[in-house]
Amino acid sequence: MATIASIHKEHVEQHIPTKTIELPHAVAALVGVTKRYGANTALDGLSLSLHAGEVVALLGPNGAGKSTAVRLMLGLTGPTAGAVRVFGCDPRMVASRARVGAMLQVASVPKSLKVREHIDLFRSYYPAPLAFDEVVRIAQLQGIENRLYEHLSGGQRQRLLFGLAMCGDPDLVFLDEPTVGMDIEARRGLWAQIRLLAERGKTVLLTTHYLEEADALAHRIVVIDKGRVVSEGTPAEIKSRGAGRTIRCATRLTAEFLWTLPSVTAVEQVRGLTVVTAMQVEAVVREMLLRDEALSELEIASPALEDAFLALTTPATASN
Ligand SMILES: Nc1ncnc2c1ncn2[C@@H]1O[C@H](COP(=O)(O)OP(=O)(O)OP(=O)(O)O)[C@@H](O)[C@H]1O
């Protein structure tokens, strides 16, 4: 297995002559990428682009192809078909690698080094690294600088891996399940750092199984399933697309009538109130107010991202 150290070392040592392709607006892009492992198709004509200053969350059930997409953009594997570009170049080129930081699930680092030694090692790979104290601060490693990696807790290891991804002051950061094992305080601390990165114009691609995390951080969510994009948009757009929004109110309108309104997907009675689920709630509310002037206790709610996610991805794959 490639260690995280070897991956980063390669970043600055490999020189791969490849034609530069201009992608003026995208920091990184997968263009119609298919990736097969034998008979298994991990990515199936997937296109995805990342732009400066945005946090993009890549969501999908187990085996959807999220890690494969990240590995392709890191140049750790090549596409079977299609193109991968990072800063306009092949991601294996030194010009793009030096501007990229990564925190991977599979990362393994030497257990016998101290936190400070890991940080110094990673800083040595880059021409203009972040200051040691800055790495310690943004990764919340104060007080454990002299601890051996093997003595760190799961959450502390995650924080160190985040710090190592930051050592080169990257313009593009890949975070694969970054907050697994972190307590709430550390998770919130990392979220704050991710927001700061985006405010400084950096680009972050995040994969996570915590939908709350995608909802809280991402400017854009890309949902993939079976190697294809099944939905893409802001968290609010994804939520409304997956399951619609709900209108809750006291009304004399009947269920029979409400079912005739456009885009309605459910009508229920809950504790004396009528609850209508619809894809185009504004149009439905307008019609309801026109037909029932006495309508009261009106509330419109978005579904949880989790509901939308489950509606967008197939149960067969989700249970992989
Ligand atoms: N090196 C490999 N050799 C063979 N098959 C692979 C390899 N890497 C990934 N796959 C397969 O490709 C598909 C996509 O895997 P990938 O790890 O990208 O999914 P994922 O969305 O990251 O999943 P998870 O959420 O479980 O981490 C899966 O069917 C997986 O078994």
From TrEMBL:
Q: Name one GO molecular function term.
A: ATP hydrolysis activity
In terms of Pfam families, this protein maps to: ABC_tran (PF00005)
InterPro entries recorded: AAA+_ATPase, ABC_transporter-like_ATP-bd, ABC_transporter-like_CS, ABC_transporter_ATP-binding, P-loop_NTPase
Q: Where is the ABC transporter domain?
A: 28-251
Keyword entries, A-Z = ATP-binding, Nucleotide-binding, Transport
Q: Which PANTHER family match?
A: ABC TRANSPORTER ATP-BINDING PROTEIN
Output this protein's name.
ABC-2 type transport system ATP-binding protein
What organism does the UniProt record list as the source?
Granulicella arctica
